[in-house]
UniProtKB/TrEMBL annotation:
This is Toxin-antitoxin system HicB family antitoxin. Transmembrane segments: none annotated. Pfam families: HicB. Gene3D superfamilies: Met repressor-like. It comes from Merismopedia glauca CCAP 1448/3. One of its GO terms (biological process) is regulation of DNA-templated transcription.
Amino acid sequence: MKYKNYESRVSFDDEAGIFHGEVIGIRDVITFQGESVAELRRAFAESVDDYLAFCAERGEEPDKPFSGRFVLRIKPELHKQIYLAAKQEGKSLNAWVEEKLSWQKYSA
């Protein structure tokens, strides 16, 4: 499910007869649950709205799904090799890495 650019993952607890959901793609934890699909959808929207209101009350920016930043720690020698490869192709390090990671489209 999607709501206000937030996506969720849902599972079903057969014993309890209830759906459990969690917003994915952010560091903060937003969960919700419901006994029917309609109730689950309402709970998801309410949880996201509550989260956004809570952030606003505290004067904090809510965590946004996929900011575009991707921090990666690698060995210094590999970093140097990637930097040199990017420069040889006349590209920035970010552009070169993005091109290499985009060679195949991934699907969810």
